[in-house]
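Quick one, tokens below. Sequence please?
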């Protein structure tokens, strides 16, 4: 018989937090309680949690629910280290948002603490469970396009809407205020920090690590943002293939509701082009769920285009890792080199020089 995992959702101030509220209906989990960072009580979809005990601090939650088995760190990045230490002390399994921490000393501490305690630590990377990603990996491994020469990935999105301003706040997104580059008033923690998927997917589908990275930024296209919103990365993989990545906040976030769940003008976009000696793969990895087109009247017509992926595949995996003792697809060790490459890109932006990963 299925034994639900008793779990709590912490902070609820990450942009992806709302994706885990439906766990209240998932037979694999019993959502026991939530902590909500003050100021986020009225966030999007928070009404789903109305029947749960709610606390303004993690300490209050833990004091009232000693029978917990796991937690979801649905929090800003600066809170993760503290929350990992607290969870490990209580023997709780951990599901983290996509950036556990950018501080590599903290990252290594997370690895040590959770491995010594024998706890599951799974990292949220929803692109890993999109069918087109599996298919592209299969094609590359089969030699369908010959030897891979180059790969380009674009992850355009909006400057975070419902969880703004924390992705524009360097402390909450990067973990501390680190200058973007000399003479620039901006700090690390914007579009680059928000899009580890592109780095992870390239590592995953090619089976190769990054050898050299070079990053640059343009002036922001938005006002009042302390972090970068337009960024480009190029470099070389250890396999010899050339890569380029554009993880910019390039889509207009000034949207208007057309109907429930549908916004104008654009959704998140993730595209890939892989060029080999025998052919080319062009793929929409994200699978946009709607296409909105304006009629001559000024009204918008929306057409459904399919599913964007298996969002709940990750939480199902988390459940089976806890109950069966297996390892998650993306744990801390699997994600480690992605975070290193992102930090190396920030170092490149700061110095204006390419960074060789064996020297980073």
């Amino acid at each position: 018989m299925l034994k639900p995992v008793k779990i709590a959702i912490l902070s609820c101030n990450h942009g992806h937090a709302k994706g885990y509220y439906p766990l209240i209906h998932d037979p694999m989990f019993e959502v026991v309680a939530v902590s909500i960072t003050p100021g986020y009580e009225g966030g999007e979809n928070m009404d789903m949690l109305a029947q749960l005990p709610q606390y303004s601090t993690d300490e209050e939650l833990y004091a009232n629910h000693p029978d917990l088995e796991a937690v979801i760190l649905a929090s800003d990045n600066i809170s993760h280290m503290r929350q990992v230490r607290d969870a490990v002390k209580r023997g709780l399994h951990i599901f983290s948002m996509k950036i556990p921490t950018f501080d590599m000393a903290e990252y290594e501490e997370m690895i040590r603490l959770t491995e010594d305690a024998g706890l599951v630590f799974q990292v949220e990377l929803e692109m890993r469970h999109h069918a087109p990603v599996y298919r592209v990996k299969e094609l590359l491994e089969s030699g369908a396009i010959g030897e891979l020469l180059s790969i380009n990935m674009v992850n355009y999105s909006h400057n975070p809407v419902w969880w703004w301003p924390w992705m524009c706040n360097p402390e909450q997104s990067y973990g501390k205020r680190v200058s973007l580059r000399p003479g620039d008033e901006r700090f690390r923690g914007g579009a680059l920090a928000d899009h580890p998927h592109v780095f992870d997917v390239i590592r995953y589908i090619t089976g190769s690590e990054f050898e050299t990275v070079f990053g640059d930024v343009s002036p922001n296209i938005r006002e009042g943002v302390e972090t970068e919103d337009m960024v480009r990365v190029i470099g070389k993989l250890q396999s010899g293939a050339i890569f380029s990545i554009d993880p910019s906040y390039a889509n207009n976030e000034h949207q208007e509701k057309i109907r429930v769940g549908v916004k104008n003008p654009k959704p998140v976009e993730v595209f890939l082009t892989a060029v080999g000696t025998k052919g080319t793969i062009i793929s929409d990895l994200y699978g946009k769920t709607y296409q909105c087109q304006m009629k001559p009247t000024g009204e918008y017509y929306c057409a459904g285009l399919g599913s964007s992926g298996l969002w709940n595949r990750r939480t199902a995996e988390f459940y089976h890792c806890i109950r069966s003792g297996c390892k998650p697809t993306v744990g801390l060790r699997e994600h480690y080199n992605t975070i290193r490459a992102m930090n190396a890109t920030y170092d490149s932006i700061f110095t204006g020089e390419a960074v060789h990963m064996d020297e980073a």
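The chain has nine helices and 17 strands. Residues 158 and 239 are 33 Å apart (CA to CA).
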